[in-house]
Amino acid sequence: MTETADVATHQQMIDTLSGDFRWGVATAAYQIEGAATEDGRTPSIWDTFCRVPWAIDNNDNGDVACDHYHRMPEDIALVQELGADSYRFSVAWPRIQPRGRGGVNEAGFGFYDRLVDEVLGRGLTPWLTLYHWDLPQELEDAGGWPVRDTAYRFADYAMLVFDRLKDRVAHWTTLNEPWCSAMHGYVHGVMAPGRRDFKAGMNAVHHLLLAHGLATQRMREAALDSTQFGITLNMSTAEPATESYLDREAARNADGMGVRIYLDPLVHGRYPDDVRHDLESRGAQLPVEDGDLEIISTPFDFLGVNYYFGQQFSGVDEHGRTTGEDGFPAQREVPFGAPTTAMGWEILPGKFTELLTRLSRDYPGLPLYITENGSAFDDEPDETGYVQDDGRTAYLAAHLAAVAAARQQGADVRGYFAWSLLDNFEWAYGYVKRFGLIRVDYPTQQRTIKQSGRFYRDTIRRVRGS
Ligand code: IFM
């Protein structure tokens, strides 16, 4: 079946996403803003990490990115042109609070003040994320997320933003993907700040969750009744590759470290016993102090779900060994054999449905919003800059249908934000990987809506009957 035919087969299912289902697009500050040294912004861990030779493909950095800082009104107009009703963006901590301490930097705040007005002025709903990875460098120098004080610094920063924007922004997300901050940032070393220290990573997990809880508590106390708070987690499915004991153990551990280590304390106020046991056997622990779990489980209103792929695991590596070089039980990801995106991520929309129904089953009563879902492909623009991105369009259609299927099976999914509005700085992959519904030609900064963007716009129009 061709990809176009694929898209048509999903239409009926997608059409069930009617009523007050929310349709959005998402971005993040460092990935699009540029203007790295303007108006008092100080370096974040990403500015520093980008200076490490070859930490980033092509030695790219976010100094200019999509130049969104100077083109913001044009970009918000594009959100409207796509027919979205909501815009998810993040605030750069070192713009608001240079060096991570002290009061508001008025010039930096002014950008978000104008942005929120622009979004509202176009009849769109702003969805604000407080932390999409721009930790002020000085806070990393003081120990970063592995130290407890960073959680308190985050809550102070959150209040600076909240006090100024709470009258106009009703949807607040504390953290984006704490798994990436802790694991890629402090354990695997492939994202800022680039450390490789398992124990530090586990300290980071706990302090990120504490930061979420402290900030949510303080913002809630100062909030209007209609304000909603949430957190966004990146999650996948983790299945055993076979029914063997070792494979089931590998999958259990992956699910524990990817999903339950975050959601169990957030929702149930406790870390899972099996995860604590796994950590102990690795000489690590979560640095829980009295009262922390009450703070972390402060009630919140929605869970943001970022889904890109599903996974299955084996407890035996490719050489038949059951212990990895780190001395821990082997954990090998086993491909399903599905087609992949340019990131090498397998395209598995059915697993998206499984994840969403599982979340609603295991954590009932928590409204879900898809705060990111999307795909990178090697785009080939024509001479006008237009991209006929059949692969991305098919991915989008299949995943929207997967969301609709999850809803039919009882999952309480209330909205979808496509990742991403624009091609942008894809972290360690620099500008090579493109996730945008809109192409950005970086030398000219020209924006061109891709076929996938038109598909998204037409879908929203059709489903809304407008
Ligand atoms: O670009 C990222 C985003 O910043 C966080 N979630 C995954 C996306 C694609 O890798």
Short description:
With 466 residues, the chain is α/β, with parallel strands linked by helices. The protein has helices at 3-14, 29-32, 45-49, 68-81, 93-96, 106-121, 137-141, 149-165, 178-187, 198-221, 245-268, 273-281, 292-296, 349-362, 390-408, 451-464, and strands at residues 22-26, 86-90, 125-131, 171-176, 228-234, 238-240, 302-306, 311-314, 332-333, 368-372, 413-419, 438-441, 446-449. The longest helix has 24 residues, at 198-221.
Layout of strands and helices, then pairs:
Blueprint lengths: L2 H12 L7 E5 L2 H4 L12 H5 L18 H14 L4 E5 L2 H4 L9 H16 L3 E7 L5 H5 L7 H17 L5 E6 L1 H10 L10 H24 L6 E7 L3 E3 L4 H24 L4 H9 L10 H5 L5 E5 L4 E4 L17 E2 L15 H14 L5 E5 L17 H19 L4 E7 L18 E4 L4 E4 L1 H14 L2
Parallel strand pairs: 1-2, 1-11, 2-3, 3-4, 4-5, 5-7, 6-8, 7-10, 10-11
Antiparallel strand pairs: 8-9, 12-13
The chain binds 5-hydroxymethyl-3,4-dihydroxypiperidine (IFM).
How would you describe this structure to a colleague?
This protein is of the alpha/beta class. 42% of the residues lie in helices and 14% in strands. It has a single domain (3-464), classed as Glycosidases (TIM Barrel, Alpha-Beta Barrel). The chain has 16 helices and 13 strands. An eight-stranded parallel barrel has the order 1-2-3-4-5-7-10-11, surrounded by five helices. Strands 6-8-9 form a three-stranded mixed beta sheet, with helices on one face. Strands 12-13 form a two-stranded antiparallel ribbon. Strand 10 (368-372), helix 15 (390-408) and strand 11 form a beta-alpha-beta unit. The radius of gyration is 21 Å and the shape is globular. The two termini are 30 Å apart. 5-hydroxymethyl-3,4-dihydroxypiperidine (IFM) binds at residues 28, 31, 177, 234, 306, 372, 419, 426, 435.
